[in-house]
Specification:
The chain has helices spanning about 30-35, 40-45, 55-60, 110-125, 140-150, and strands at about 10, 15-20, 70-75, 80-90, 95-105, 130-135, 155, 165-170. With about 170 residues, the chain is of the alpha+beta class. It has one domain (about 5-130): 3-Layer(aba) Sandwich (Aminopeptidase). Helix 1 (about 30-35) crosses helix 3.
């Protein structure tokens, strides 16, 4: 099976069923609706700058090349709405992928971010990456804690004390 056709089902520790798969341009409307449900602070943490939900942003997240960049979407099995996304993009070296997870603000605390990060790491490993990195605002304590719990280690981000880089070697 091609990785851009990969699909998996996940049940979080809190019992939320998710169907996770790569995004497609057909998802653009659902992704735009998802983005509109995200708080301004959650969007800022995900994109490391102030962004507003827009069709252009939804297009950016759904029109990926499925080669150097992938965006996974997790659909909530209860109502088929998007619960989270996870971007996996080639980093500064061909062996490293950057990962960024975004969970719908009203669904936080249900284990969705945990499982999306884990699935993104599995996907990155299947793509041949040996390492993943997450670049976080240093004030995003919730994400940094979650990443550390999954074995990520903190590295200094040269020249910017407001940014934390977390790295994990994949098996």
């Amino acid at each position: 099976m091609l990785l851009n056709q990969w699909t998996t089902q996940v049940r979080t520790q809190k019992g939320v069923g998710l169907i996770v798969r790569p995004t497609s341009p057909d998802d653009r409307g659902d992704v735009f609706k998802f983005l509109k449900s995200i708080s301004a602070s959650d969007l800022r943490f995900r994109f490391l700058s102030a962004v507003k939900p827009s069709e252009a942003l939804a297009k950016l997240l759904t029109d990926v090349d499925h080669s150097s960049t992938e965006d996974l979407v997790a659909f909530d099995a209860r109502d088929n709405s998007i619960a989270a996304t996870a971007m996996i993009a080639e980093g500064h070296s061909p062996s490293t992928a950057e990962v960024a997870v975004l969970v719908r603000s009203d669904l936080k605390g249900q284990g969705i971010g945990w499982d999306m990060l884990r699935e993104a790491c599995k996907y990155a490993s299947a793509r041949g990456y040996r390492r993943v990195q997450c670049v976080e605002s240093s004030s995003n304590e919730r994400a940094i804690t979650l990443e550390r719990e999954q074995g990520f280690r903190t590295e200094a981000y040269a020249g910017d004390a407001q940014t934390t880089v977390l790295t994990k070697d994949l098996d």
